[in-house]
Amino acid sequence: MPEPVLEAVGLHRAYGSVHAVDDVSFVLPEGGSLGIVGESGSGKTTTARIVVGLERADAGDVRIRGRARDGGRGRARRLARAREVQMVFQDPYLSLDPRTGVEQVLRETLGLHFPGTDHDRRVRELLDQVGLGTRAADARPRQLSGGQRQRVAIARALAVEPAVLVLDEAVAALDVSVQAQILNLLADIREQTRIGYLFITHDLGVVRCVTDDVIVMRRGRVVEAGRTAEVLADPRHPYTRLLLDSVPRPGWDPAAIAAARRAL
Questions:
Q1: CATH of domain 4-95+165-233
Q2: Is the pTM of this model over 0.85?
Q3: 74 pairs with which residues across the strands?
Q4: What are the residues whose beta carbons fall under 8 Å from the beta carbon of 40, sequence distance 6 or more?
Q5: Is 255 exposed, middle or buried (0-12, 13-18, 19+ CB in 10 A)?
Q6: pLDDT in tens, 198-216
Q7: Sheet holding 59-64: strands in order across?
Q8: Where in the chain is the domain with CATH 3.40.50.300?
Q9: Whole-number Å distance between alpha carbons of 132 and 39
């Protein structure tokens, strides 16, 4: 069994009387892929933001390779945390500077974390790793397709060689065919680097395709967890069954789904 690269232990986060994250724990092994599934408001994105360090937990710990994440302030500590965990968002256009070309995006990231180093070779490696090549090096975000922009976002995240990559609905805004390309790319990168993936998604098709394990969240709590194939084939919690039944298919009855949701 691979050693855990990421552990979340008893995470809690409340906003007033609303418990967005309520005693959430999970383990991500090195080279593993874990999905966090749930509807909007289930707490999955808040959990991801706590793991990355964009939110502070009211209680609980996040550990990388057995060490608690350093919550200290200061530039050096922030950079150290960023080198442990990186995040890829749903819309890369919002996280990329529209005035900056692809190569310069990567050089700025590398220069920030690894100053005083010649980055030419590493930039070429990153472009090749995400399937862009040098032809896209000078392109700005508006000159790229959605899939290409997401590849740039992935390359920027990989530049610091993180232990964990958090993907928050990272393919939700892409066409189905482009989704498949990005998911295949991520599978190849995981095999090459042994990086750990934490997928935040509502798409059970994505979960089935790219994760080894899954946890299902509802109203801030984990209601089911296990191997992805087993949970999706034989869900034990009514909420997990409801999520599976909610996927449109021949004979799908939205009214029955709505009634089941009200009953739950």
A1: 3.40.50.300
A2: yes
A3: none
A4: 202
A5: exposed
A6: 999 988 888 998 999 999 9
A7: 18-29, 4-15, 59-64, 67-68
A8: 4-95+165-233
A9: 33
